[in-house]
Amino acid sequence: MWFYKARSQWVEDVRQPETGRKLRWYLGPDERQATVEYHRRMASLYGEQAPVQTADLTLVELAERYLAWCEANCAKSTVHYRACYLAWLLDHEEGGRPLGLSPAPSLRPQSVEAVKAAHRSINAPRSVNAFVATVQALYNWSVDQGLLQVNPVSKVRQVPRAPKQRRSLSAAELSMFLSKADEHPPLGDFARVLVHTAMRRGELDGLPWSAYDPVAKVLILYHHKTVGKTGLPRHVPLCAEAVDAIERQPRRDADSPIFTVGADALYQRLVRLRKAAGLPARVKFHALRHTAITLGKEANIPRHIVQEMAGHGSTLMSEYYTDADLEMMRGVGDAVADALRKAKESPALG
Fold first, then answer.
1. What percent of the residues of the chain are helix, what percent strand, and what percent coil, each to the nearest 5?
2. Are 291 and 168 in contact (CB under 8 A)?
3. Cα-atom radius of gyration of the chain, to the nearest Å?
4. With a threshold of 0.70, does the pTM exceed it?
5. I need a labelling partner for 232 at 20 to 30 A (CA). Which of 22, 51, 172, 246 fits?
6. What is the mean pLDDT of residues 166-175?
7. How far is 190 from 60, CA to CA, in rounded Å?
8. Nearest residue to 260 via CA among 272, 273, 248, 270
9. How far is CA 228 from CA 67, 235, 255, 263, 284, in A?
10. Is the Cβ–Cβ distance between 271 and 250 less than 8 Å?
11. Rounded Cα distance, 310 and 230, in Å
């Protein structure tokens, strides 16, 4: 709903399921009463469209009614992806005939399984599961609206997802990557700052010298183009290795970036280095962030300290911990440095 100032009323635009014609409902000036009136009209509109059991309702007709309801009640992006996944079902041929022309109440679970099998080879499990969820939503809505008595595909299950891949690097992998990255400056120093601070690459990319406080040994993100996903300003403490990596960069004026080469260009260097050195595909800038967080936890640094260091937003944690000690946060970078030292001393690397 939206408030129409010219008429001082709450308004909703809906589409008639049968004709597709748009209607504009004026629901009154009070938002609560307008919401109640909106739901009353929606129940009336869709309750009149069909008897409890509609044996001759095809899948295409059912999908059209459902998408018309979605347009009036869901975000445009939701309508778009549900239409895309329903197209998988409607366009799938069974016996030389599209499923969309078959009666909606008689859809068999085997037919949905056939669509799943056809798309599993070309789509990720997440997409296939989104298809199953969309079909389930279609039939659950049909039952709620009184168009059908039962959901004929209620027992169709989603496909199992692939096991999660390790996203962080081992100390040996990290040490090897940094030694190779040092041959392509400033890639090595850029990577060192990321892994010793758990920063996102977008936070460090283009960060000006004015954000660097050499006395307090922190990076201040509140005035940069990005302050991370949370949108909250934060101070990032620097361990000795991160300070050295920053100090090695040529200093210009306060508004010039610390790293003059952009993150995108550095990432292209990383990809070429990764292929040449035979490093695993998970060696990415974001993997350095995961590595810092993992090593910080393995070093028994308190969870809320690691969270503050990484800039993760959590209202629940913020209620208990308002200010994490910068020295304790700097311990995350020190934990990474200790892991690297142990990796270099390991005979496996020699």
1. 55, 10, 40
2. yes
3. 28
4. no
5. 246
6. 88
7. 54
8. 248
9. 36, 12, 20, 15, 18
10. no
11. 11
